Description:
This protein is mostly helical and 72 residues long. The protein has helices at 2-27, 34-71. Helix 1 (2-27) crosses helix 2. The two termini are 29 Å apart.
Amino acid sequence: MRLLTLAPVVSAAGDYMENLVGLHLLDHPEHITDALVRTTTAVSATKWVLALGSSAYLGAGFGRVWIRALRH
């Protein structure tokens, strides 16, 4: 359950990190390396998995609550 609590926070942190790296690389394109691109891609993929997973979990929970509320 703790992972579900931390998932949106980790996702947001990954988004900030991705944005900061992107801004840095706009000014310093010579710093672009294969390793940096791979790392940024891994962070981005993890960010999206955590964000979409959290949204799906919350949506399913809220959906059950709303359906129960509509039935009563």
